[in-house]
Amino acid sequence: MSSCLVAFVKQRRKLLRLTQAETSAKAGVGLRFVPELGQGKATLQLAKVNQVLRLFGHQLGPRPMDRHQLLNEYD
Fold first, then answer.
1. Is residue 1 classed as helix, strand or coil in its secondary structure?
2. So what CATH class is 3-55?
3. For residue 75, is pLDDT > 80?
4. DSSP character for 17?
């Protein structure tokens, strides 16, 4: 999971003064999910990530990338 996403969730959660348990309950995900998200677990379900993000008025989605930069990363 992206460190940017992890930082975003932690920042928003703290801004709203929500514990991990409160965040889990309000987002409708299991108690273990938010701590796993906060630890950057790589195998999280995207739908559940979006449930948490929806609590903060956001969602994950595709965004365009610079094709040349992407191709250079694999050379």
1. coil
2. mainly alpha
3. no
4. T
